């Protein structure tokens, strides 16, 4: 390839202009973010334990190069989301206890079971089980799962535990003593909403959750970047052969205290792994298929109705972020776009939540 003086000069001048333009744009962006931050500080003080997520437009849904992306995450589409505050970590046992003490609230998992209400969701003619079975409780991971035949049958590693609730996460005899900094679990959506009302907060929309998980990014696969090999250093997920072998190289067999892993680039912890997090959006596996990828959605609130082929009559809500049970061979839900459905009337030992607030909410 031949280079002459004129070509070199043109190249240098263009490069200088390009870098100057980039520096100018970067400077303008930094100035804009600084001004926005200063205005925000003047208008409303950030609540303790919360982080501001700036207004931005980003790519929601499955990203290019995401080998684990599922059909319900496609097609990717642009969304614009206004700024908001979000908890820096999942709501903890300590925080939830403060709510319970102040309100005398009783969670769904602690309440007597109403057979008349339950049978509405069962096939007609289902016989009432023995009273010894109809006891308050919740779902827990079966730590002794062996001989798994089909990964499609998740009932092999889940079991209903009578007496399991947020205070007794593994059932009678267990407790959360010394676990103030652990995410509260065994909470149903009703419980989370009651907490939100008490705290003057709400659950995030799925779009808000993804905006927070992206942080300063706009189209990344993971909350820490795009390198799958960085998973173990950034999230509490299953290590070993799921669900029968857990080698726990990270030091955590199952759930871990909040903030045990690095925050993302805006200071949010556990946006991947540890416990699933609730959102306010209805779960519909066909929702993204109805969207026009060329249209930028502003502050979307999700599908108008819930739809899951395996459970078409049950209403489910979107949960995000994956949990300590996520593994590449199973759900790989430690990705920003990943989502699963959760029934609103029950909890488990791997589902929690975090809350959001807007400037308007805080000004009330």
UniProtKB/TrEMBL annotation:
Q: Known PROSITE patterns for this protein?
A: PROKAR_LIPOPROTEIN
Q: Which SUPFAM superfamilies match?
A: C-type lectin-like
- Pfam families documented for this protein: FGE-sulfatase
At the top level of its lineage, which domain of life is listed? Bacteria
Q: Where is the Sulfatase-modifying factor enzyme-like domain?
A: 48-356
Protein name (database record): Sulfatase
Upper taxonomic lineage: Bacteria, Pseudomonadati, Bacteroidota, Flavobacteriia, Flavobacteriales
């Amino acid at each position: 390839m031949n280079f002459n003086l004129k070509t070199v000069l043109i190249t240098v001048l263009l490069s200088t202009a390009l870098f100057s333009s980039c520096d100018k744009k970067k400077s303008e962006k930094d100035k804009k973010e600084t001004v926005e931050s200063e205005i925000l500080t003047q208008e409303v003080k950030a609540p303790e334990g919360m982080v501001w997520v700036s207004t931005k437009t980003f790519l929601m849904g499955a990203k290019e190069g995401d080998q684990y992306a599922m059909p319900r995450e496609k097609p990717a589409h642009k969304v614009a989301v206004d700024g908001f505050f979000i908890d820096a970590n999942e709501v903890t046992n300590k925080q939830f206890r403060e709510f319970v003490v102040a309100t005398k609230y009783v969670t769904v998992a602690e309440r007597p079971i109403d057979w008349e209400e339950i049978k509405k969701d069962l096939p007609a003619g289902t016989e009432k089980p023995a009273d010894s079975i109809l006891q308050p409780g919740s779902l827990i991971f079966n730590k002794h799962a062996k001989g798994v035949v089909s990964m499609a049958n998740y009932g092999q590693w889940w079991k209903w535990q009578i007496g399991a609730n947020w205070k007794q996460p593994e059932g009678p005899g267990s407790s959360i003593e010394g676990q103030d900094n652990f995410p509260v679990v065994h909470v149903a959506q009703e419980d989370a909403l009651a907490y939100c009302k008490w705290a003057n907060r709400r659950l995030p929309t799925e779009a808000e959750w993804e905006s927070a998980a992206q942080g300063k990014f706009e189209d990344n696969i993971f909350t820490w970047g795009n390198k799958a090999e960085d998973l173990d250093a950034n999230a509490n997920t299953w290590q070993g052969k799921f669900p029968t072998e857990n080698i726990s190289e990270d030091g955590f067999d199952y759930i871990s205290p909040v903030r045990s892993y690095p925050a993302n680039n805006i200071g949010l912890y556990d946006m991947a792994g540890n416990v699933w997090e609730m959102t306010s959006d209805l779960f519909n596996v066909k929702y993204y298929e109805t969207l026009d990828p060329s249209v930028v959605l502003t502050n979307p609130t999700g599908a108008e109705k819930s739809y899951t082929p395996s459970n078409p009559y049950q209403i489910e809500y979107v949960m995000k972020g994956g949990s300590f049970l996520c593994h590449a061979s199973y759900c790989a839900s430690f990705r920003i776009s990943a989502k699963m459905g959760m029934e609103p009337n029950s909890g488990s030992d791997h589902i929690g939540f975090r809350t959001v607030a807007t400037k308007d909410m805080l000004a009330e």
